[in-house]
Design goal:
Largest sheet: 8 strands, parallel, barrel
Order of helices and strands: EHEHHEHEHEHHEHEHEHHH
Strand order of the largest sheet: 1-2-3-4-5-6-7-8
Distance between the termini: 10 Å
Number of helices: 12
Radius of gyration: 17 Å
Structural class: alpha/beta
């Protein structure tokens, strides 16, 4: 797996629009991409197969949450698609997450493939602390909840979490070495925040301890998406030159 991945959130209406967007990238630049629920429910497994065949690292963000047996069956099937990263809600508990991991291992084994890195959803970046407490009938601070869920995910053998960059450092302090903190809610300076509450720039996410980031509108709605992507990569990886060459981008997220 690549280090410090930068995932582009493919929040497009269908496969045609998605692939038209990706065709803007040179052949030797294959960004890591995130397929969310909307695109997957529209196109199904075919979109994952198409992206993998084109050489993209695929993060499938379905936020699975059900009884352990059902989630295990789901991760078994999804692992057979060759997805590289997959999300499961930590709120389902250790038994559910353990079943998810076992299902993913079994599915990957069936196709002699690599087991996807499982990432636990902690608290959505659209949640404020007050909204989380009111919705979930809890009184603990948001950070306390996120760290607790991250520890459950580590116990279940997950690779890391999806959470705000504001929680990255605390997650690292409370979990084993190499446990990942992948952070959405990323915007370039000056971009609209949209429906997010806990938002940071790529450079700030790096400073706060994020191991990878997910970026949507700052890239997909930019006048020049390739240049915007290269700027995000440069900021997140600490490269002072925003104009990464094609060669330096090859094989990175």
């Amino acid at each position: 797996m690549m280090t410090k991945p930068v995932f582009i959130a493919l929040d497009f209406s269908d496969a045609q629009e998605t692939m038209a967007f990706l065709e803007q990238f040179p052949a030797d630049v294959r960004p890591a991409v995130k397929v969310g629920m909307a695109l997957f429910y529209r196109e199904g497994p075919a979109i994952v197969r198409q992206l993998k065949a084109a050489g993209f690292t695929v993060f499938l963000d379905l936020k699975l949450y059900d009884i352990p047996n059902t989630v295990a069956q789901a991760t078994n099937h999804l692992a057979q698609l060759g997805v590289d990263y997959l999300t499961i809600h930590a709120a389902g508990g250790v038994r559910m997450m353990t079943a998810a991991r076992e299902g993913a291992v079994a599915g990957a084994t069936l196709v002699n493939g690599q087991v996807p890195k499982l990432l636990a959803i902690t608290q959505l970046t659209s949640f404020s602390e007050q909204e989380m407490q009111e919705t979930q009938l809890v009184t603990v601070p948001l950070l306390t909840s996120v760290v607790h869920l991250a520890q459950l995910a580590a116990t279940a053998g997950f690779a890391g979490t999806i959470s705000s960059a504001f929680e990255s450092r605390a997650i690292h302090e409370a979990t084993p070495t190499n446990f990942l903190s992948i952070t959405p809610g990323i915007r370039l300076a000056g971009d609209a925040v949209g429906d997010q509450n806990r938002v940071v720039t790529p450079a700030r996410a790096r400073e706060m301890g994020a191991n990878g980031i997910v970026v949507g509108r700052s890239i997909t709605q930019a006048p020049d998406p390739v240049a915007a992507y290269q700027r995000v990569v440069a900021e997140f990886r600490g490269n002072n030159d925003d104009r990464l060459s094609n060669r330096s981008c090859r094989g990175i997220a």
